[in-house]
Structure formats: C-alpha cells, structure tokens
Amino acid sequence: MTDQIEGIIHMLTDVASAVETAAATAEAERIEKPVPEKELSVTERILVSMLTENTGCHILDSGGAYGRSWQRNQGRAFWNEETTSISFRASHYKGETTADISVTHNLFHWLRERLDYAPVMDRYFRLFCAKEENSDKGWLELMEDFVKRLSEVTQCECTGIYGEGEPMVINTYNGEDLLSQTIQYMYFSHDMGDFVILQIHGGCDVRGGYTRPRVFECTGRSECAMFDNAQASISPDWQEVQAKEKAQAEYWKNNPPLPGVPDVIPPTVESRDIYWSTDDGCHFYFQGSCGRDYDDKQLEKFPVKEITSREEWEEGYLCILEDGTGLCPFTGCTLRAGF
How far, in Å, CA of 11 to CA of 23, rounded? Predict the structure, then answer.
C-alpha cells in the first residue's frame, strides 16, 4: 500500500513539474533574444546556448519563487556584460565596522577565456551517449564511462592534471567559488590535449537542473586555469589613477612649494603596485602576500568609513559609497576586480 501511495505522489509531482516546465518554456520563448553587434565565435555561441538551455522545472525546488538560472538568462547579452563585478558593504557588529567584499566573475567571460569548443571530441561524446546500452544512464555516469572508453579505444590513458592521476569530476558548488553560476565538469588529459566535459547548472536546486554536457579543449593561461574559480584580483581603476596623478602633477607645476618648505612626500606605495589577490573570496592579500608585514594591508582589514560622496574619502580607510562602490585606501580611486 505504501509503495502505491509513493507511486501516486511521484506521478502527481511529475505531472505538476511538466505543467510548470511548459509554462516556463512558453514564457521564455516570448522573451526577445539580443543580437550581438559582431558575430560570436563558435565557442561563444555554444556557451550562450548552454547558459540559456531549458533545464526544466520541478515543483519541489524554490525556482517558482526566485526563478531558475536558465529563465533569468533569457534575453541577456552576455558578451556586453561586465567581466567581473565587485561590491562593498559595511557590516556593524558589537561596535565594530568591517567590510563585506563580494566579487563575482561572469561565467560566460570566465569560460571563454579558458575553453575552446572541441567539435571532434564533442561528436565522439554524443555518439557514445546515443548508444542503446547507454540510454538509461545519467549524464555524470556517461561522462565517466566515455573517458574510460576513450582510453581503451585510443590505447592512450586519460589522466588528470599534468598527465598524472585520474580524470577529475569537479562541481564548483562544493568549494569556495566566485562564478556567477555553478558548473560541473570532468577534466581529463589525453595525447590529443586537455579537455573538459562541461555542464552548467541552469536550475535552482544545485542537485539538479544541469545542461547537456559539451566538450571543450582547455586553452587557458595555464593547466590550472579551470581550477581558479575562487581566485580574483582587486586594484584601483587605472584610468582614474592616471587622471589623478596627472591632475596632481599639473597642480604642483602651477603651485610650486615655497622656498624652504619641504617638497610633497612621495607615496609609500607605487600606484602600479597597488593590488590585492584572493584564492578564497574572503581574504584579500596585498600584492598577493601574507605574513606579519602584510596583515594590516589585507583589504578586508582596513578600517571602514561609510561616505556619501567621493570628497569624503580619507587616506588609510576603505571608504564605501552608498551604491556599494569601494575606494582604494591609498589612492581614493574606484576599486575594480578581475580574474
């Protein structure tokens, strides 16, 4: 009797989910799709299709209330969006004010900097998945079986990074992550190159709602590029820095110090050397260094000052404007973030 009741519940859940998926699909189809100013590369087009791929709806997740990623992505011109966003917020606790620093890498830009679509390997994968004996397998199992089969067929073992160990399955939700969406992928190295079988999470609940896997070749700055999803750098806006230095030079040119008055004290830090880096999204190390000589220069450890205009900036403070903009403690220029 219990099994019958559970079966009925599952059936009703599936029907309700199908109805919600149909409604969400119809709504998505009504959204106008942006047209890029110039033609996108094949890799970019594949990434856009994955980011907007309909991964369905389930009535038991909270997507009905908050929307799912694939729904929110409809109509977005990813190629025109900011590569990395950063925002600051002052937190008050027990009389102490600290800074909450939030950095988010736009997944479209982050992936296209690291991957190139691999049409031949992707076709091999699709053909493998289409085999009758694989019809009941899930995507993750298919990804793992494909890599094993590739090793057998080519007589070249698929390995992990640097040609060592086993191929790796990574889900960015399981660790520190700065990406705008969760991704899941299998990384493997082969004589033909280093590859990623990629899925993008388009749902709400991270346990489901992943796209159909596509295969890409790793072309990033290093073999570890796909694993630096929790890394970022923060520095003052260089154009603002140059404009400020130019204005200061012009001022002192027109207003030289009086005889006998000491010249302007040079800055203790060269503007080009002002940057902070993180590998966890929580600690921002000055010039990428930590230790006793650098602890007080970690960005999150500067004293915080909430201001309403840039004229209120004070050197030595991490000043935060009402719109979430942070101003550099050394230069007073807007802090920007990047990969």
Answer: 19
